[in-house]
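Please, is this right?
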Amino acid sequence: MSDGWDESAAAWIAAMGEDGDYSRTYVLDPAMLDRLRRRTFANALDVGCGEGRFCRIMQKLGIATVGIDPTRALIERARELDSSGDYRVARAESLGVTGESFDLIVCYLSLIDIPDLASAASEMVRALRPGGTLLVANLSSFNTAGMPDGWQHDASGARRFSIDRYLDERAVWVTWDGITVQNWHRPLSTYLSLFLERGLELQYFAEPTPVGGDPMRAAHYRRVPFFNVMEWRKKP
């Protein structure tokens, strides 16, 4: 998570219970856990771990975790919730970890928070062991191209989602549930190119749909592309 989270850390901590919000509980967690259960991982680095929720989930699968985040308040909260866990204040662009030391690196809705994504991508590839996995959950680029006010009413009064300037990489301030942060819109080709150029191989790509929860909310999440999940592999 970027420095833009500093002032919203308290609201984030309040909003994120142990189960997370709707999108995590019913859309992304099932997709991410399905990928994790297909292989055995000894250790993982969670880049942009926030208050450590997904680190704690991975620990229940027997994976030793290190969580990093630049927002000190979130790291302090992670340490409160998991006193024996390894949580560090650090940026994705400078991880401060030994090279080729992790079987798994997770970016759970954190790529959109990173200003210098090219440097962060290089750092993550450096930290990943040969044959290791980079597992990404990200906001869809079609969704971020509509930020901050993509949902609008058309002439008939129907609510529609519109996108604009899709190919223009840009920072956008967004607000929800009392949380105001700076996210980055980037076209999908930017994400793919960054990892392909660094020698990673794409193993899996999906646009997950809700599984359970409030049917009205589930219908909302099916209207537009919200998220994608990517699994990358570093060559042995």
In short: Helices lie at 9-15, 22-36, 53-60, 72-81, 117-127, 141-144, 188-197, 215-221. The domain at 3-141+187-234 is CATH 3.40.50.150 (Rossmann fold).
